[in-house]
Design goal:
Length: about 575
């Protein structure tokens, strides 16, 4: 038995009344007692453990809306008592008087850094933000007004789900709000959903998860069934972090996590990106000067195998290298909205000059650790579905698409096959063939088989001089046809994998010169050259009719030297 030394002092428990009212807050996550003023300065979060406190409607609006810009809509709507639930009307009246809000959601219009938007803010203090008739009606009316006014919608979601006291009347609000958002989307308008703690039940299964862009606050609990219900149902303890915002990003269900101090800037930037129309007028004039003139020319002739090795080099520039150098204000989006966020596929929205662009790339790592995270640049089905989601989003908002291709091929794993690798590739080819916005695809490294083609159905396809584009690897070609993988260099020459070969065959439209192999040493020069070329592509294609753009890519019927008529 352990023995403890008796102390010569006593501990006096602190009574609640010893704490000056309103000066202190206890964090329910770490248990620390916090000075309220410091909590406020820390965006209503614990400065010990980082946990976010739930915000009132007024505090939320003060954080994101421009001062005195918020105009409230649809106040005074009365809630019925369809179940004749005892004490329900009295409960509502008491909450209205106490909280000075008339329901669990407040709707209206405001500006965020000058960008006009319809906004709805849910408040957990009002019956845990549960969705009854009035909540559904206010959100529906707000979305319908936004559609009429051609304005975007932002909803800060916070809810325990459907309101039990209203039974099936509450449940029907899921369908009503979703229908309104469908009409808003069909009008080509932006909806941003921001998930806060908690967002569960019928709200998760309706308007919370229907955003064109879905963001979340750090640590927010998000799910359909609550953790307690799941544990009771399956009889298992849930893993740490289950249903938290970080879990949702990892599993591809939301686009990203935004801290409160960054929320206003992020929302303003996203709103501006979607109000700025992509047109030739927003693109700077391309510089026709030889940007690459300062680079030393490579010595000697490179063989096809030399190009293969250059394309695979660990120091070769990646998709993100070009994206960050060529474009500005890149906002990366995550996930396929179903299963996973594939590390081998990156994408989001950025600016080229003043033109909003959707950029997508296949991303390799430079270190072993990074390559494991990126799966060595081999996309899974979830990666292709993420790319397609972003491309369809670009089509909705009339944004051009720039794809950067660099992959050994699609990931050939057990899980990839179980998740439908072939179907995912086929679906991309099918949908990309009819995209009604300009699509430019650039092979910057390895273009491996169908895993590369899945992003190469573009109006134009370019290749870096030392990139390769192949039906399969030279090693695989040699092994299959000659039963000897060591003949890979010979196979590379026969397969016509180089940019020069493929330009002559009509597979690609242009070759981007590399006086020296692409690396960090010439990132700026290569990126500036590529930027000017992209400007030229956009200037030529942004004004074309959508129907023309949709079917301009037709190499399967008109490649040079195939005996078919050239398009």
């Amino acid at each position: 038995m352990l023995k403890f030394k008796k102390t010569n002092y006593i501990t006096v428990p602190r009574k609640e009344q010893d704490i000056p009212e309103g000066m202190w807050i206890k964090c329910d996550a770490c248990g620390e007692l916090l000075y309220k003023e410091d909590v406020v300065h820390n965006h209503y979060s614990c400065y010990k453990c980082g946990k976010y406190f739930r915000l009132s409607t007024k505090r939320r609006l003060r954080m994101v809306a421009d001062k005195q810009s918020f105009e409230e809509w649809d106040t005074g709507l009365e809630t019925a008592n369809p179940l004749d639930y005892p004490g329900y009307p009295e409960k509502l009246d008491g909450l209205k008087e106490k909280l000075h809000i008339d329901e669990a959601v407040t709707t209206g219009v405001c500006t965020i850094k000058g960008e006009k938007t319809v906004i709805a803010v849910c408040d957990a203090r009002f019956l845990m933000g549960s969705m009854g008739y009035v909540v559904g009606e206010k959100i529906t009316r707000a979305v319908e007004k936004a559609t009429e006014m051609k304005l975007p919608v932002i909803i800060f979601c916070c809810s325990g789900g459907a309101r039990m006291q209203e039974g099936m009347v509450s449940l029907m609000q899921m369908a009503k709000t979703s229908a309104a958002l469908k009409k808003h989307s069909d009008a080509g308008l932006l909806y941003i959903s921001v998930l806060t703690d908690p967002t569960t039940g019928g709200v998760t299964a309706s308007f919370a998860m229907l955003g064109d862009i879905i963001l979340a606050e750090p640590g927010a609990l998000v799910g359909f069934a609550g953790p307690r219900v799941i544990e009771q149902t399956i009889g298992q303890k849930l893993p740490e972090g289950f249903q938290r915002a970080e879990f949702l990003v990892e599993h591809g269900l939301i686009d990203g996590i935004i801290r409160r101090e960054d929320m206003k800037d992020t929302l303003a930037r996203l709103l501006h990106m979607h109000t700025q129309k992509a047109s030739a007028d927003t693109i700077a004039t391309a510089d026709v000067s030889d940007i690459m003139h300062g680079q030393k020319k490579k010595k000697g002739k490179m063989t096809a195998w030399d190009r293969v090795m250059a394309a695979r080099a660990s120091e070769r520039l990646t998709a993100l290298d070009y994206i960050h150098e060529i474009f500005s204000d890149f906002e990366e989006f995550h996930g396929d909205r179903h299963v996973d966020d594939d590390g081998a596929t990156v994408g989001g929205i950025a600016y080229l000059d003043e033109c909003p662009i959707t950029v997508i790339g296949q991303q390799k790592g430079r270190t072993t650790k990074e390559n494991i995270t990126r799966n060595f640049g081999m996309p899974s089905p979830e990666g292709y579905r993420k790319a397609l989601r972003l491309m369809k989003q670009a089509e909705k908002f009339h944004r051009p698409i720039i794809n950067f291709i660099d992959t050994p091929g699609a990931f050939p794993g057990l899980e990839a096959e179980e998740h439908g690798q072939g179907e995912a590739i086929a679906r991309n080819l099918y949908e990309m063939a009819a995209l009604k916005v300009p699509v430019l695809s650039i092979v910057i490294g390895e273009g491996g088989s169908g895993g590369a083609l899945v992003l190469a159905v573009g109006n134009k396809v370019w290749m870096m001089e030392n990139a390769t584009y192949t039906i399969l690897s030279p090693e695989g070609f040699a092994s299959i046809l000659w039963k000897d993988g060591k003949r890979a260099p010979e196979a590379a020459a026969l397969m016509k994998v180089t940019a020069k070969d493929l330009l002559e065959m009509g597979i690609v439209d242009d070759v981007i010169e590399e006086p020296m192999p692409a690396s960090e040493a010439n990132l700026v020069e290569l990126s500036n050259d590529m930027k000017n070329r992209i400007r030229g592509f956009l200037a030529e294609n942004l004004e074309k009719e959508p129907e023309v753009l949709a079917w301009i890519w037709n190499r399967s019927r008109g490649v040079k030297k195939w005996g078919q008529k050239e398009l």
